[in-house]
Amino acid sequence: MVAAKETKAKMDDQASYLRTSKLALALAIIHSKPADKSGREHAEHLARVVSGQESKWRLKVEALEAEVLQLRQKLLLSKIHSGLFDSGDPSTQLQAQEPRCSENTLSLLEDSGCGLSNEQRTEPLEMSQHFVESCTPTPFPPLPIVKRHGATPENPLSSHMQFLQHLLELKNLTESGSLKTDLSLFENDYSAVSDSVFQLLDGLITFYRKPKFPFSSFWTEAVDTLARLISDCNLSIHILKKCSKKLEEFEKFLLQIILRNNHINRFQVQHCVSQCLVTLGSCSLLRKSIISLLLSEVNIFADDLGTINQVQASYDVTRYENIFSLFWVLEQLLQKETEKGNTSSIGHDDQEIKKFLQKHDETIFQLSDAFPLFTFYLWRLGILLNSVERETVETNSFP
After folding, report:
1. Structure confidence by residue, pLDDT tens digits, 337-372
2. DSSP bridge pairs for 21
3. Under 8 Å CB-to-CB from 67, ≥6 apart: which residues?
4. Alpha-carbon distances of 341 from 205, 234, 357, 392, rounded to whole Å
5. How far is it, in rounded angstroms, from Cα 249 to Cα 202?
6. What are the beta bridge partners of residue 152?
7. Torsion sign, CA atoms 87, 93, 98, 104
8. Global confidence as pTM
9. Considering only CA atoms, which of 152, 145, 255, 239 is closest in space to residue 201?
10. Would you give the DSSP letter of residue 187?
């Protein structure tokens, strides 16, 4: 009882202090008011000043956070690189089995398989020379990284792209021949990877909100890099832990761009966005969710067309045309799913697949006269989904 009274007294004191502070602030504003302005105008002016200062501080904080992230990126790459080309001292964390630079190592770095664009590609001679220098024992060995032309102030996301691509290059080296190295010791530093992916996803969403043509190869590479990062079983654990919701937001955002676009010359945009979904779906960890997401829209649209057909009402031609981009993406992803050893374990347990297959024959029968092209694509999807199911059964039967 005593404790409750003490708590109530403290709350009363705090409320009284807050009222007094507000009154003091109001009096200070009134006393400092210029003669040619009303109290309201003066208060609004002070609010704008404070708001402007807050925006400046926010920009400074964001700039500092970006700088810290870049330093964390460089530190992680430095640790991996020093582990790859360690001198063999038992006291170090990692030991490369072959610490010298062989011709095979140089050729691996010259062609890392990252598919860089011309504007981001580094000349082999320049890269090789830098890489040889990096193999010279130093207290803090330099990274096998050359400043790429893609890193411009106009596109700050290029720094994240360079980091993620260099990380993939180094991972390729750790998994090759005599340079096999365990990177699990660096998992405590992998938050730099997930933070970079998060920033890149934010940038992609911003770009696709108002895409500019012609598309820069940067955006295509960004989506491809994301797919390859998430395909890596070690990196995906850390990335999906932080970025799963942002990835889902990005997938849904791309889908809505396709469905809601009503511009006359929209097909070029839809083709690029559709290709992005296919690229993301090349990662088996993402393919199941993307297929389910697309089938959900197809099921909804099929139900709407069934209702329209029954009452003989008019329908949105633009929406009807846009749905065929979804069909194309679905066909590409389901074909990937039937490739040997490339399954993501989708099956008839998925609710959207269940709904699609249960109503498949009935929908085709009802809509074939009014919407023959639509039902033809439904029939093709049914064949592909059944092929996926057979492939899954065979894979599970014969391990």
Report:
1. 887 555 556 655 678 888 998 989 999 999 999 999
2. none
3. none
4. 32, 19, 24, 10
5. 10
6. 155
7. negative
8. 0.68
9. 239
10. G
